[in-house]
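Practice problem 4.
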């Protein structure tokens, strides 16, 4: 692991990639009992027996306390050990520098129309970090949606191909490109299909801004096989995979003892920075009700374990709490739930939510280390394919927590 006090906030490249991966792998593997179990599904966690003071402290905090610390759990300096020690090591191992940026030419007239403000800022930040030894001649916007990123990158004398699965987005993107008098080809293609390699050639410079799970992994595999000289990928939604467990990409990843379920892979995505007050309140109400129902179903079934429930339409939250529980019980085919003290049960759900959110702060210390581990596995895979890889950030976390960018270029 990096020595204490070592500045590890630079952009990762070369031998640093494997060194950091190895350190992160040891950290995540050693402490997996702290971050793998989800407080939402377990009323008590195994680590609480070995860290009773920390467990008691976290369980005694309010929902507001948890909300305030959610995005920066490492700032909880008053938390009993081992929290502070883990937070310091997490911060050291997670540190990665900002990729050097460059000024962009002003966007074409009304090019940002129809693009949400935050998305356009992400596109601008992403585009400003793309620097390659040789100027791209043909951009390929992977999982492009309407092609906003590709159009922003397209310069004089360059070509653009946008690859997208949804035919409506393909049609909308083609119309937008024509409206802006830009020469762009919008292609309808399932990138996971066997024939997806046909859309890639060695002359392309593929870019992907927040293509989910299997989609960006597929790009790395196909682009390297096609002989693309350079690519830029900002990964997202690591849990959107077809397998039940993560399939490592690099030699180092394959040698790791860390086994990651789809649920584990969702940990980096648990950070939220964009939700408004109404959305947060709706989310909290939904979770508090689910936790209250969980207490009820354990009692009714006489089985002290979590019972998975399906996603419910938001309209369910408009129902009285008792009706919500009865309907959900019917959905789960629980024959009878009796007549509990509904107000007390609802209050217990909110209390349980406060405990869950605060206990999750310990898991939060492993959120960024796991995300960086996953990105380094990708970086090492690309290095094995003959690329020089740089891994750094392209924007600050408040703009998007998914701010890691892989730049790969063959010498």
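Answer key:
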């Amino acid at each position: 692991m990096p020595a204490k006090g070592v500045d590890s906030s630079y952009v990762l490249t070369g031998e640093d990639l494997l060194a950091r991966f190895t350190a992160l792998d040891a950290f995540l593997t050693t402490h997996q009992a702290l971050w793998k179990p989800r407080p939402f599904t377990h009323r008590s966690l195994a680590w609480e027996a070995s860290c009773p003071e920390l467990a008691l402290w976290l369980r005694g905090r309010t929902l507001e306390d948890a909300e305030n610390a959610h995005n920066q759990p490492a700032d909880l300096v008053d938390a009993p050990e081992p929290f502070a020690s883990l937070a310091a090591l997490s911060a050291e191992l997670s540190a990665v520098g900002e990729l050097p940026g460059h000024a962009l030419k002003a966007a074409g007239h009304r090019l940002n129309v129809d693009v949400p403000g935050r998305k356009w800022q992400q596109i601008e930040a992403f585009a400003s970090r793309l620097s390659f030894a040789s100027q791209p001649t043909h951009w390929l916007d992977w999982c492009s949606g309407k092609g906003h990123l590709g159009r922003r990158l397209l310069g004089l004398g360059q070509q653009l191909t946008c690859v997208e699965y949804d035919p409506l987005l393909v049609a909308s993107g083609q119309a937008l490109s024509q409206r802006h008098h830009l020469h762009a080809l919008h292609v309808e293609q399932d990138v996971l299909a066997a024939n997806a390699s046909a859309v890639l050639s060695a002359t392309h410079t593929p870019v992907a801004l927040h293509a989910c799970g299997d989609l960006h992994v597929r790009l790395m595999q196909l682009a390297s096989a096609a002989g693309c000289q350079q690519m830029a990928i900002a990964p997202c939604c690591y849990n959107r995979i077809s397998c039940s467990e993560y399939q490592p990409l690099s030699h180092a990843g394959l040698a790791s003892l860390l086994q990651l379920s789809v649920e584990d892979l969702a940990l980096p995505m648990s950070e939220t920075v964009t939700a408004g007050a109404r959305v947060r309140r709706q989310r909290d109400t939904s979770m508090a009700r689910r936790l209250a129902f969980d207490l009820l179903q354990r009692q009714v079934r006489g089985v002290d374990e979590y019972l998975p429930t399906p996603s419910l339409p938001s309209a369910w939250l408009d129902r009285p709490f008792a009706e919500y529980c009865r309907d959900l019980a019917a959905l789960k085919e629980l024959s009878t739930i009796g007549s509990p003290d509904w107000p007390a049960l609802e209050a217990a759900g909110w209390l349980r939510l406060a405990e869950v959110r605060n206990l999750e702060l310990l898991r939060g210390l492993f959120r960024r280390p796991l995300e960086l581990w996953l990105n380094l596995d990708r970086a090492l895979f690309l290095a094995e394919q003959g690329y020089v890889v740089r891994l750094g950030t392209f924007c600050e976390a408040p703009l998007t927590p998914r701010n890691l960018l892989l730049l790969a270029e063959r010498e």
